[in-house]
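Re: weekly structure request thread

Next one in the queue (397 aa):
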Amino acid sequence: MNELVISIIVPIYNVGNYLKKCIDSILEQTYENIEVILVDDGSTDDSSFLCDLYSEKDNRVIVIHKENGGLDSARKAGVKSATGDYIGYVDGDDWVEPDMYEKMVHVIEKSQEKINCVVCGIVENYEERERYRRPYLEEGIYNKRKFSEKLRDKILYTGEFYRSSVSTSLGDKIFSSEIIKKYQLRDGLNTTLSDDSFVSIPALIDGGNLAVIQDCLYHYRIRHDSLKHSLKETNFRETITEFLPVWEETFKMAAKDYDYSQHIKIYLLYTLAMKEPQYFDYNQETLLNLYGGVEYGSKVIVYGAGQTGIVLMKYLKSLELIRVVGWVDRDYDKLDNNELQSPEELKNMEYDYLLVAIIRRDAFESAKKDLIAYGIQDEKIRCVSDNIIENVDKYIY
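Done, posted below.
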């Protein structure tokens, strides 16, 4: 059997401070039969220079310099140039474990059926801490029959909000070249709202034959300087109106015998909850409808300083009719954020509602137990409301 070639696409835009760690982690892989495609998307820092430097040092590195066109444009340029049997992605500020691709290739080579995708776990690397996200599925191979029986109707939405059977990221996977090219090169699948999801999930559905590795091998760097700009002047309502038919048609192409329309809408709700909490307040009589609705003039506390908490706080600061009286996180002393307070301070605060900025229901229930132990009244604790799923067609149309 000929040794498989893995093409690894690295979209790059002004990540010079992180790029060396990213590229070194790829070139130092224990599996050496790789093609590394660095796509410089019009960087204005030293990223362009670093890309050229690496191409001179290692003949496995290919560099593409292009005008800035965004993440999807950079990935498309990389995919068009890829010659490998399988294609993977690493964002320019992320990095991978040294044996990531060796483990993935090992699974492919020992399988008696062609594997179209291999997925592993992710390490979320915050500036002050890290969190391991292992696949929801058990380790093993899901051939087309097993995939159809166990995953087809749960791959994007398992019935629990913010719970898909497989992560929607591209970075924690490698795909067979012919499958991922089919979707990566389609237009309208990767927007500010949809990120990787509407490329990765249709490719998974179409290909079937998925292999799952429980090891967390991909490091996703979560940067505060990036998160604080999450609320951009983007009209997501217009984005949904324009692209929802494209996304639905793509899923129909991937799965001719199953309708994913409602699952797509629920997934969009989750993405909006993460990126744009104000979306749910459009033309409504109350504010913070994502959290069940809060009356004008209310005093609130935010619990949680992850991505959801940071975005929620930025929105709250833009509101004149809601008063934020505290921002609390149990890891307040480990985080480089002087706005954060200890949960111990809750007993000294006067407020109407405590908003738990955690979307996963199991994580929320754990946090709620802690809060009740601090003496917080149950009726004051708010989380992302189940009503948004029940009213999905009200928000996504």
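The first helix runs from residue 16 to 27. The chain has two domains: 6-230, 284-387.
Next request, please.
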